[in-house]
Design a protein that fits this description.
mainly alpha; about 5% strand
């Protein structure tokens, strides 16, 4: 499950107990995807993208971009094949950036709730 609490548990508890460095990588991935999903499915102003808080806005865009880059460059399975989920994350992220720019810059909205553009759970 992509949940920030799971990532914290992997980072602080399991890796400290086992000393397994791979758990830190897994925790990074779980946390990144959880933050990305939180932004992409945002349906409240609390998690919406807006320019009122520039630091939070830039951090949100950085999360979307970082997630896209991780999915574009990651190797899945022993053969390192490209998977449909990678295409999905790339497409969703690209459209999220386009919608954000359109509504904030061209429509002069105060914020964008990206979850309003989805009808299915991601």
């Amino acid at each position: 499950m992509f949940n920030r609490r799971v990532a914290a548990a992997l980072t602080h508890h399991l890796s400290a107990i086992t000393g397994d460095e791979e758990l830190k990588t897994t925790a990074f991935f779980v946390d990144l995807v959880a933050r990305w999903k939180e932004l992409i499915t945002a349906r409240t102003p609390l998690h919406a993208l807006g320019k009122r808080n520039k630091a939070a806005f830039n951090a949100a865009l950085e999360t979307i971009d970082k997630t896209t880059n991780v999915f574009k460059t990651m190797k899945v399975g022993q053969k390192g094949e490209w998977k449909p989920s990678q295409t999905g994350v790339k497409a969703i992220s690209l459209n999220a950036r386009r919608l954000t720019r359109f509504y904030l810059e061209e429509e002069n909205r105060k914020f964008v709730k990206l979850g309003d553009f989805t009808s299915d759970p991601i």
